[in-house]
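Thread: quick sanity check before group meeting

JM: Hey all, I'm pulling together slides for Thursday and realized we never actually wrote out the predicted structure for the chain we discussed last week. Dropping the sequence here so it's in one place. If anyone has concerns about the input, flag it before I start.
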Amino acid sequence: MPHEEASIYEDALSRLDRAAEVVGLSSEIADQLREPLEALSVSVRVRMDDGSQQVFPGYRIRHDDSRGPTKGGLRYHPEVEMEEVKALAFWMTCKCALMDIPFGGAKGGVCVDPQSLSRMELERLSRAFVQRMASFIGPNRDIPAPDVYTNPTIMGWMMDEYSQVQNELCPSVITGKPLALNGSPGRNEATGRGAYYCIKELESRKGWNPHQVRVAIQGFGNAGQSVASLLFDDGYRIVAISDATGGIFNHEGISIPEVISAKNRKDSAEDLYSSCSVCDCGHCDDTGGRCTCEDCDCPACGSERIDNPTLLELDVDILIPAAIEKQITAENANRINADYVVEIANGPTTSDADEILAEKGVTVIPDILANAGGVTVSYFEWLQNRTARWTEEKVNSELKRIMVAAFEETERFVREESIDWRTAAYSVALTRLKEAISCRGTKNFFNQVA
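JM (edit): ok, ran it. Output follows.
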């Protein structure tokens, strides 16, 4: 019979099993972490601009709160479903433990194509979703944040709606808010900056000359743009980037500031989403390869057009998957030519692909480490909402301290246990979760003879 592909949640749990053996996790604690603490499924009813009503499925998972209130993003995407949200919430539990911040994991989302909605429809959707979740979330219970196709504006609407439901201002219920609504400096760039700090740690150990290091980035949203900018400023040669519509490749390197400027153009200043692509000309209004400039030398027009699968297989030093889940699989893992994979996306590499990459000698800096800058600065925002605002310099300094500490602790497990980086990262996380859960009492404790 043909091999049945594991679900995204089953694949996520396979990482738990490997690390559980390393740290000697009891079956009692492992079983607790296998199932989410709470799951909420709602129908989000929205009155559309034409007067009709549409109903969108919405989900929120609180995976584990052993180490603190649960924390995790909310995404708007047409493929959001419960199994995916469970996996994302599980990863958040492990990510927060690895970073040693006092949160558990959560995740949520609405099954919707947000780019098909008007601004007013998007606002009504966001506020309606919060109304359905109001008893499930809270500043000391479950704190949402931005994720795929959600942003500070949407977080601001959600915080405002929750505050109205509670009849008091509650800024710490949501993170990733606009600065004017008690957001944190540095939050927008935090996910990419965290990955950048991981790459800088590799650089210091490997003695890299950034000008000789070739980088390809799949996914050019907020996180992809952030890490690209930081690496470009340091002299790294970004040779390929892509988004949902395609990508560009230039062996000599791509001018990242120019691409970001072209990518983020909007039809009007009020638009929440840009309809532009990295493939679009940065000098004229035409898109989709229809440049009308004479002898145009912008990054898009001066580069080779490639698709996303081709980008993943380029001969580069560092590959950064920064898009969506399950991009590197057993089907294409043998064709990955990068020496290092730094995962900004959640779950971009399947467990089957991990084994193939390990055999090829590819080092994977896993998502729960590489993309943890976002939740770390969300923690800082949550703290600031209870005390006072930090400067951006303090935010970045504290983020670097925590990222480097997590990188070094993961590296120690790699070295001492002779295991891969992903298993090592999960081992660090499970060690801390094991300690927190054990403090509440387990079979071993209660069976002790006085």
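AS: nice. The radius of gyration is 22 Å. The chain has two domains: 35-181, 190-370.
JM: adding both to the slides.
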